[in-house]
Design goal:
Helix content is about 25%, strand content about 35%. The protein is of the alpha+beta class and about 90 residues long. The chain has a four-stranded antiparallel beta sheet, with helices on one face.
């Protein structure tokens, strides 16, 4: 399954916060999460993350691990191939 995470840090980014997040990313990639892209952004969110997980539970576990330092809005992404979300025309 494909997910998009919209991330807003709760605190100022320090070396410790960045280091902890890099460690979490490393741990995630040893498990069920596959990162497809991580992007710094300007605007409402600090970061946008595109990742794959086998199911919603694995994605939720990844998000909850960071709840103390980030607000994360997670979206399930469905490929647009073959028409609109309502189905082929």
């Amino acid at each position: 399954m494909l997910f998009i995470a919209l991330v807003k840090f709760k605190t100022t980014l320090t070396e410790e916060v960045v280091s902890r997040n890099l460690k979490d990313i490393e741990d995630d990639t040893k498990g069920q999460i596959r990162y497809l892209g991580i992007y710094w952004t300007l605007g409402k969110y600090d970061t946008v993350v595109l990742f794959e997980a086998p199911n919603e539970k694995a994605a939720m576990n990844m998000v909850l691990k960071r709840a103390d330092r980030m607000d994360i809005e997670t979206l399930v992404a469905v490929p647009a191939e073959g028409g609109s979300p309502a189905g082929p025309a």
